[in-house]
Design goal:
Elements lengths: L13 H11 L4 H8 L6 H7 L11 E9 L2 E8 L5 H14 L4 E4 L3 E9 L4 H10 L1 H11 L1 H5 L3 E10 L10 E9 L6 H19 L2 E8 L6 E8 L11 H17 L1 H21 L4 H11 L10 E5 L5 E8 L13 H10 L4 H23 L5 H15 L6 H11 L5 H12 L1
Antiparallel strand pairs: 1-2, 3-8, 4-6, 4-7, 5-6, 8-10, 9-10
Helix pairs in contact: 1-2, 2-12, 4-13, 6-8, 9-10, 9-13, 10-11, 10-13, 14-15, 15-16
The structure holds NADPH dihydro-nicotinamide-adenine-dinucleotide phosphate.
Length: 429
């Protein structure tokens, strides 16, 4: 993408937006036409992906604009049904862009496979026996999936823990083996599961116990991505609120979430409002990302804010978001679903590390969008105006009636389905 700053994109028709994308992006027309035909996933293809298929379920696909991340422009595909999310992400990305853009980084893509062993006659002896044979186990794991080793990844290390050693514990004692596996650009579930299943018989022999579970952990705390931004207060001024007031409001809002799980859940839901749509649009497993993100938010023992907002010595607002990011640019549905492939092409992304960084940048933007609105006018003003068209549709409006009814609802400051139904009846007369 030459630039993700496209003034007026919001006011264009869908056709005009697609033409604009063609001008700005080198992606082939064939891919862009996938969107144009509004048949992103055929029922035939869907029938090959899951079981008992009776059709496909579609979501709106919008573009988060203005994202400047590590100096590179991204127009970010977001698949989501909720109004105002894409607008808010784009609004904040524009502010952050003016302040120099997002800075992001990512760790190596090391995922975790777990093996559960129970009934060992001596758990400490079993642990030692496994540790002593670490190299053998790593070699066996890599032999089970040699292609990932050729790609520069594979099983790298092993760890063993004993759970429920306390005799008071209500659960059985068990030995848990962690295999750390670099999955390169794949999310890696199948790679990891193949590896841990293949070494389970050796683990049983070494431990004299019985192996039950052999599966990846979605708590991918060695596969992290982090985004940060530094925003001078002058860029935060909103209506009658000064930039400093907005900055302080955002920090107070963060401190609320950091100290209260009731608020943290909603605060983090707002972050996932940005993250899930990109994960979905790129064909990734959003349940895996959701589960890992929430666990990471509780890593210190209390469920807390995923983001951190503070003020630096110059009075700038500083935001940070670090999360496990078990996503891929290959595997799963990423290259099967035509719109996932399209989304990855549009992002012009080649590695999973880069995709992970874009995703956390969007999450950070989304969080600031919500906190900035909450700390100033409240979210209903902007949200309900954008929601008004869905309300009109829910009340039975069709065609040109949708925009007319939506505008009337905003004008009368009554964005309710009941009111919309009355207007639809009047319009029909
Ligand atoms: P796949 O098994 O579909 O694909 C990964 C394969 O892609 C690799 O094994 C590799 O095979 C190939 N590949 C091509 N290029 C690369 C590259 N640059 N880096 C890495 N691999 C490459 O996908 P995953 O193993 O990632 O599994 C993801 C799927 O698993 C998701 O759909 C997820 O929903 C599902 N899943 C999730 C679970 C969970 O989260 N708990 C559990 C089970 C499944 P080769 O080298 O042979 O070409």
């Amino acid at each position: 993408m030459e630039t993700s700053r496209i003034p007026g994109f919001y006011n264009m028709t869908v056709e005009e937006r697609i033409e604009m994308l063609k001008e700005l992006h080198s992606s082939s027309d064939k891919d862009l036409n996938n969107i144009k035909r509004h048949v992103p996933l055929s029922t035939e293809m869907a029938d090959k992906m899951i079981e008992n298929v009776i059709g496909t379920f579609q979501l709106p696909l919008g573009l988060g604009l203005n994202f400047l991340i590590n100096g590179k422009d991204y127009a970010v595909p977001m698949a989501i049904e909720e109004a105002s999310v894409v607008a808010s992400a784009s609004h904040i990305a524009k502010i952050v862009r003016e302040a120099g853009g997002f800075t992001t980084k990512a760790t190596e893509r090391v995922m975790i496979g777990q093996i559960q062993v129970v009934g060992c006659p001596d758990f400490h002896e079993a642990k030692e026996a496994i540790i002593n044979q670490k190299e053998l186990l790593l070699e066996a794991a890599n032999n089970a999936y040699p292609s990932i080793v050729k790609r520069g990844g594979g099983a790298e290390d092993i760890d063993v823990r004993i759970l429920n050693e306390d005799t008071e514990s209500k659960y059985n004692q068990m030995l848990i083996l962690h295999v750390y596996i670099n999955t390169c650009d794949a999310m890696g579930a199948n790679i990891i599961n193949t590896m841990v299943e293949s070494i389970a018989p050796i683990v049983e022999e070494l431990s004299n116990g019985k192996v039950y579970l052999r599966i990846l952990s979605n708590y991918a705390d060695r596969c992290l991505a982090k985004a940060s931004c530094v925003i001078p207060p002058k860029y935060l001024k909103t209506g009658a609120y000064s930039g400093e007031e907005v900055r302080d409001g955002v920090i107070h809002a963060y401190e609320f979430a950091a100290s209260d799980p009731y608020r943290a859940v909603t605060h983090n839901k707002g972050i996932m409002n940005g993250i899930d749509p990109v994960v979905i649009a790129t064909g990734n497993d959003w349940r895996a990302v959701e589960a890992g993100a929430h666990a990471y938010a509780a890593r210190d023992g209390q469920y807390s804010s995923m983001t951190i907002w503070s003020k630096d010595e110059y009075g700038n607002l500083v935001g940070e978001l670090e999360l496990p990011m078990s996503i891929g640019t290959v595997g799963g549905a990423t290259r099967v679903h035509p719109l996932a492939k399209f989304s990855l092409d549009l992002l012009n992304i080649s590695t999973a590390k880069e995709l992970a960084q874009v995703i956390v940048a969007v999450g950070l933007a989304q969080n600031l969008g919500a906190l900035k609105a909450l700390a100033t006018d409240g979210i209903q003003k902007g949200h309900m105006a954008l929601h008004s068209r869905s309300v009109a549709i829910a009340a039975g409006a069709t065609g040109e009636m949708i925009d007319i009814i939506a505008e009337q609802l905003i004008k009368e400051k009554q964005i309710r389905v009941g009111k919309a139904k009355e207007l639809v009846e009047e319009y029909k007369k």
